[in-house]
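Open question from group meeting: does this chain pack into something compact, or does most of it stay loose? Before anyone orders reagents, we agreed to write out a predicted structure and look at it together. Recording both the input and the output here so the notebook holds the full record.
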Amino acid sequence: MTARVAAAAWGLLVLAGQILLPLSVRDRLPDPLATHWGPGDRPDGSMPFTVYVVMVVLVWAVPWLGLVVARARALTHRQGRMFWWGVLFATGVFAFGMNVTTVLANLGAPDWRAARLPGWAVLAVIGVALAAAVAAGYLGRGAPDEPVPAGTRPPLLRLRAGQRTVWVGHVANPWLTLFNAVMAAGLAVLAVFSLAGVVPGKPAALILPVLVLVLAVGVLISSVSVRAGDDRVVIQFGPLGWPARRIPLSKIESAWAEVRHPSRVGGWGIRGLPGGVTIMLRGGECLVLGYRSGGQLAISIDDAARGASLINALINERVES
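Structure tokens returned:
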């Protein structure tokens, strides 16, 4: 069975479940249905039955179609296959599971306010979805990726005796930079409104720390710089170059440039697992460091081929000395 057939079959199966489940017990459900619960098991929001059915269809159909579109590029490498299959099945399980819990909570209730949803039900759905992601990712991982052909590796630079050479590469994600600017503006407005008494103190006290944390993370991952020279490779995050990761050349076997895209590695940011991590700020050329232990670290960076050439030259210099 090909990936296209499997994705189509799974998608149609979940889609049928999303539609048929509420329709099969239509006469035992209140209209409107309880669709949102606050703290505890009592609902605080509702939705007409027809709107609910449309919503549960879209909750699954939109990500399913998006994954189908991204299939060709995502399945070219093992990490992409694991992520794609994991997300496909986890999203389907989660969407259908939340549909089941919502229908069961409303089943037999005379009014949507009488619906009850125990907290453990949501946790159970999340747990099953995570298990489905792990199982699908493992089963769909396929064969290991082919090693990079020797002809695609960058040419080795020749360094003169005693010559000290440094390469610095940098990349920034303009969308993350824009997001950070919007977050900073929102944080400033909320702070001013809070001080002026327009926003009550308790909600502001809950929202402000979250916005500060999101802004701090956004600033750190909006740009990255890589510096290669002497006996190490240094990866620096954010405009201040902190935090920084220092990798001794003694741990690196070789370096090369490779084209990678977010669809292959599972999105933007720091993606992957130990031994196969990608720092993805934009799709395209990446600097890949191959560890002597067998793992890899890829960084989306400008001028990656030149940086890889210098790193290989520095490694070769250490071996010869």
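Observations to bring back to the group:
The chain has a mean pLDDT of 83.
The first helix runs from residue 3 to 24.
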